[in-house]
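RECORD TYPE: protein structure
NAME: Helix-turn-helix domain-containing protein
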Amino acid sequence: MSGKEQLTTEPTRRRLTERQADTVRRLTDAAVVEVGESGYEGLTVRNVAKRAGVAPATAYTYFASKNHLITEVFWRRLSALPPVEADGTLLERVVEVLREIALLVSDEPELAAACTTALLGTDPDVRELRVRIGVAIRERLQAALRDHDDPRILGALELAYTGALVHAGMGYTSYARMADRLAEMAELILPEPAE
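PREDICTED:
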């Protein structure tokens, strides 16, 4: 590595050079296309590597499994969300946070189903990313709740989101409908506005 290469920190990996970070980006971009074409069942790290133009061994250097790779895709999309807006009522802010998280992959049904499955994976890298995803979602909800920091409300909202994700992942509802249902749940969970 030359002294001029900038290092980038990836969530479950060592610090990466710009070139290595570009390889990871190409792999995650290729994974989205590949899962859209072949579904989760047909997805392999080897095929993603081929689509990204890297050797399979290189891909496995960064991703231990297809679950790790797809969980990384979800993590990157979640991390790219803008900060929670301070405007609006409590309900409007919370609904906006729940909706944006629910809709991260809603336009890509194969990817959405793959994310649900991958997030339940047991590999250590998936577990680490799942914790990071949970923390990021909690922080977004806390930012929306602001002064309404009742841990019971936060916990109920987290459970509502997690249950909705699994419900949609099992095919009981669409991810777009899940966003609407989460808005309904938020109305039930949040305290009535002060008069």
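COMMENT: The first strand starts at residue 7 and ends at 9.
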